[in-house]
Write a structure and sequence with these properties.
Distance between the termini: 79 Å
Radius of gyration: 26 Å
Structural class: mainly alpha
Number of helices: 2
Number of strands: 0
Length: 72
């Protein structure tokens, strides 16, 4: 029951913050959303670029091998 009241209190405080300071809440929300999007983009770049490089290396090797065997 204690955790329920704690969560309810936090929700009430967030509601009051949006009710009393809507401009600051909006700016904070925009900053938080921008941070989350930036972290997602950075994570995507960190994961996607090495995979793309490996795929391009494999395709290049396959292309070279096909070209070399076609000429023989």
């Amino acid at each position: 029951m204690l955790y329920f009241f704690a969560i309810l209190g936090v929700i009430f405080l967030i509601y009051l913050f949006f009710k009393v300071f809507p401009l600051f809440a909006g700016i904070g929300g925009l900053i938080l959303a921008g941070t989350i999007l930036a972290l997602l983009f950075i994570g995507l770049v960190i994961v996607a670029i090495p995979i793309l490089i490996v795929i391009l290396i494999i395709l290049g090797i396959v292309w070279i091998v096909k070209k070399a065997t076609k000429g023989s």
